[in-house]
Design goal:
By secondary structure, the chain is an alpha/beta fold. It has four domains: 184 residues, Alpha-Beta Complex (Lambda Exonuclease, Chain A); 236 residues, P-loop containing nucleotide triphosphate hydrolases (Rossmann fold), CATH 3.40.50.300; 121 residues, no CATH class; 223 residues, P-loop containing nucleotide triphosphate hydrolases (Rossmann fold, 3-Layer(aba) Sandwich), CATH 3.40.50. The chain is 44% helix and 20% strand. The strands form four sheets. The protein has an eight-stranded parallel sheet, with helices on both faces. A seven-stranded parallel sheet has the order 21-22-20-23-24-19-25, sandwiched between helices. Strands 1, 2, 3, 4, 5 and 6 form a six-stranded mixed sheet that branches. Helix 9 crosses helix 10 and helix 16 runs antiparallel to helix 17. About 2% of the residues have low confidence.
Length: 809
């Protein structure tokens, strides 16, 4: 026997949801706005109207007891009908008559549960004490056997209130309630039994390897203590430490000790999600019993050639909620490690959207693997977990250095004037209300363009938001929300929907706007762009991390740790931990060619020296190499010169917009020992790539697939308006503007590119740093500890001497 507790809204929505997935029926107003409207309607209902009435009841189901509880929006006595009324308030943009019948039934179902709980309480079932509620209802002479449920629907665009009522007998409500509990009970039993199995297995779980790598035991211990004590840890663990297993293993141990409820493993790249899946499989082979799910982006996992999330176009969206619980029950009872392939198989089997299936099954999983945006992005985060957290979560953030730029993007938003101009042209006069709202916004852009012309500028920034634009965007978004379901067959449906999403995003970001933002305006050949640019997202990241019990943020290149702790919302109380490299120094040769200058003005002059340095690196040992450049232009110029001077060396060049097959074909050329295009062995391959690009991070070319890397320059981001805003902001904050805007982000790109060489304990390789600035004190201080043995050379001949000696030792 066990006791469980569930909220009214949760049990109703989970068991009784029906209907389709429809991207056109997404509300734009916020939870805060909905709460404000609720309070307004409750206040206007009069003195006899009781608001937020707390109700609960414990029921016996088999050997178990389930408590259902929640707060009814309103309760009042209708003197004309001489009956009590439960009021259920809902707000949204569509007109009441446009709402699907399934949705209205779901609204009423929630009110029906509250109505039954109220009748039980009033008829002498006061098992619950409700000190939170100030409600008092006079004793009645006879038991109550009838009650009304009122749905109060507030349509937000025109502020239309629609009230509808349904009457219920206590017997009808009792039958409805018991059926609801019986259906939900099996899910609660499943969860309870699974948690028992999970915890038993995790308490007995052993580390999946006979021995720990160097530093691995220390990282696992630090992770365990952090999670156990509910803190944040920023850890730098060089490649080869085994960061994934060293963080997942202790997290599972704490979970098994009832120290937490769920783990979120968050990454920036698909390959690191695969590493997490592999680690969980290794632990499962050792005895771990956990359910995990990997979340894949909607566009990637969609079964359609072109995603269209409407029931008319997608059979997996049509009737999704009619079939989802059967699909979940099947999936949960047959699978533990729910990868993309598993999700796709069950999605096709039950004809349900694979993306939504992965989200729905995540509620039952112990480990959720996915992109950063599922936690940190303010528009796509997993609301079912993080809007009002009810559990203790652990956040494991892999390769967390990527979160610096990603979070700036997540908390920034831009709009182009062209978006509104195109819609105005496409919409006919019949849609006058929507067109007029579009023209108001376009007028804002027009006035900005006129001011720019008058004052002769093409770029402008200011600390204050553009309030007039925001004022006009809000009603436009509401009108679009109203227009979309009312014009489902209109050929402009997709154009309006895409614009609606962009506007909603801009409005959502405006809710965060404070002194960590600047509003920028850029005018170019494409027109006018307005952007809310987030310079420092650290406070927002900190608020997100607060939704978990504890967090581990880790990376192979996380230096200097105080910088990342500051910009990623660690706060002063966060812990820091740095592990030494697990590889012996003699396995990796670091050579700094400090006679080469690669600053912008010296690039043409530097090209012959760079070409010779690359050739000497390759001549020291036949094999596969990568050379990273700060820009495509620099890359192309050096590649042309290199190819003309050394045509016998096989050259591979990164394209500017490579698709997935092209990337795979590129990496497939890196075969052990080196091969030319004809497959002959003992032929060196040199790949020219862009620093900070797709091949400078996240690829895993072990052993002889890659034996050397050359890095041209110190990786400084190109000077642009946004980098200069960052520089100015941090100059004022801590006098470290150039460092925060340029040096530290650049050095991270260098370290990531260099990290492609040594991936495993058996690897041996060289890193050639081609820039005079690496010898300066500021850059020397940024080099990792295991690079302190770097050799500085002042001539091409010295490169050959150092590398030949290394390879022949």
């Amino acid at each position: 026997m066990y006791k469980g507790k569930v909220a009214v809204r949760k049990i109703v929505e989970f068991i009784l949801r029906r209907g389709d997935i429809d991207s056109r029926r997404v509300s734009s107003h916020t939870a805060q706005e909905g709460a404000r409207i609720h309070r307004q309607l409750q206040k206007e209902a009069g003195e006899d109207y009781q608001k937020e009435v707390f109700l609960k009841h414990e029921s016996q189901v088999g050997k178990d007891r389930i408590t259902v509880e929640g707060r009814a929006d309103g309760l009042f006595f209708d003197h004309e009908k001489s009956c009590w009324v439960i009021d259920e308030i809902k707000t949204s943009e569509p007109y009441y008559e446009d709402i699907q019948a399934d949705q209205i039934d779901l609204f009423f179902a929630q009110g029906m549960v509250y109505a039954y709980l109220f009748l039980l309480r009033e008829n002498g079932n006061p098992e619950e004490e409700h000190p939170e509620s100030q409600d008092t209802i006079a004793d009645t002479a006879e038991p109550l056997d009838q009650i009304d449920v009122q749905l109060t629907y507030y349509q937000t665009t025109e502020k239309i209130i629609t009230r509808t009522r349904r009457s219920f007998s206590i017997n009808a409500l009792a039958s409805f309630y018991e059926s609801l509990l019986q259906e939900y009970h099996k899910w609660m039993v499943f969860e309870e039994n699974w948690r028992r199995v999970r915890n038993t297995s995790l308490q007995l779980l052993q580390f999946p390897y006979d021995t720990f790598r160097k530093g691995q035991r220390e990282l696992a211990a630090a992770a365990y203590k952090t999670l156990k004590t509910g803190q944040r840890l920023f850890a730098e663990a060089p490649t080869g430490t085994g960061k994934t297993i060293s963080t997942i293993f202790p997290a599972l141990k704490v979970l098994g000790e009832e120290g937490g409820d769920r783990i979120f493993y968050l990454t920036a790249k698909t390959i690191t999600r695969q590493v997490a899946e592999d680690a969980l499989q290794q632990l499962a082979d050792t005895g771990s019993e956990t359910k995990s799910v990997t979340l894949t982006a909607k566009d990637k996992i969609c079964f359609l050639e072109e995603r269209n999330c409407t029931p008319e176009h997608c059979p997996f969206a049509e009737g999704y909620y009619n079939r989802i619980n059967e699909a979940l029950w099947d999936l949960l009872n047959h699978e533990n490690q729910i990868t993309r392939a598993v999700i796709e198989a069950y999605g096709r089997k039950h004809t349900v959207c694979p993306f939504e299936l992965s989200l729905d099954v995540s509620v039952f999983c112990d480990v959720i693997i996915g992109d950063y945006n599922y936690l940190f992005d303010p528009t796509v985060y997993l609301r079912r977990f993080f809007e009002e957290p009810e559990e203790d979560y652990f956040f494991l953030v892999d390769e967390a250095h990527n979160l610096v730029n990603r979070s700036k993007e997540m908390y920034s938003a831009a709009l182009q004037r062209q978006l509104f101009q195109d819609l105005i042209k496409k919409l006919p006069k019949a849609h006058g209300k929507l067109t007029r709202a579009l023209k108001k916004v376009d007028k804002d852009f027009k006035e900005i363009a006129a001011l720019a012309k008058e004052e002769d500028w093409v770029y402008h920034h200011q600390a204050a938001p553009h309030d007039t634009l925001l004022k006009h965007l809000r009603p436009l978004a509401e009108l679009m929300q109203e227009w979309l379901p009312a014009n489902e067959e209109d050929p402009r449906q997709e154009d309006v929907l895409l614009a609606y999403f962009d506007i909603n995003y801009y409005l959502k970001i405006s809710e965060f706007y404070d002194d960590h933002y600047e509003t920028t305006v850029e005018i170019d050949a494409y027109g006018v762009q307005i952007k809310q640019f987030c310079i420092e997202p650290a406070p927002f990241l900190s608020n997100v991390l607060d939704k978990g019990k504890a967090s581990l943020l880790f990376s192979a290149s996380f230096s200097p740790l105080p910088y990342y702790q500051e910009v990623l919302g660690g706060g002063k109380e966060a812990l820091r931990y740095r592990l030494p490299s697990p590889f012996p120094p003699e396995k990796q040769k670091i050579v700094v060619a400090d006679y080469i200058q690669t600053t912008y003005h010296q690039r043409t002059a530097s090209m012959p020296l760079i070409v010779e340095a690359i050739q000497r690196m390759v001549a020291a040992k036949t094999g596969n190499y990568m050379v990273f450049f700060p820009s495509y232009r620099y890359l192309d110029d050096v590649a042309a010169l290199f190819s003309s001077q050394y045509p016998e060396i096989d050259l591979l060049i990164q394209g500017t917009a490579m698709n997935e097959p092209e990337r795979e074909a590129f990496l497939a050329r890196f075969t052990p020992g080196g091969q030319n295009k004809a497959g002959d062995v003992q032929q060196s391959l040199v790949a020219f790539c862009v620093l900070g690009g797709i091949f400078s991070e996240g690829i895993d070319l072990k052993g002889e697939r890659l034996i050397g890397t050359a890095i041209v320059g110190v990786g400084l981001p190109q000077i642009n308006h946004e980098q200069e805003l960052i520089r100015s902001y941090y100059d004022q904050k801590n006098h470290a503007g150039f460092s925060y805007a340029y040096q530290l982000p650049g050095m991270n790109k260098v370290l990531q590119a260099a990290g492609r060489v040594i991936r495993d304990t058996a690897d041996t390789g060289v890193v050639l740093l081609l820039d005079q600035r690496f010898q300066t004190p500021v850059y020397r201080s940024l080099l990792p500890l295991h690079w302190q043995h770097a050799q500085h050379v002042r001539s091409p001949e010295a490169i050959s001497q150092q590398l030949e000696a290394f390879w022949h030792q």
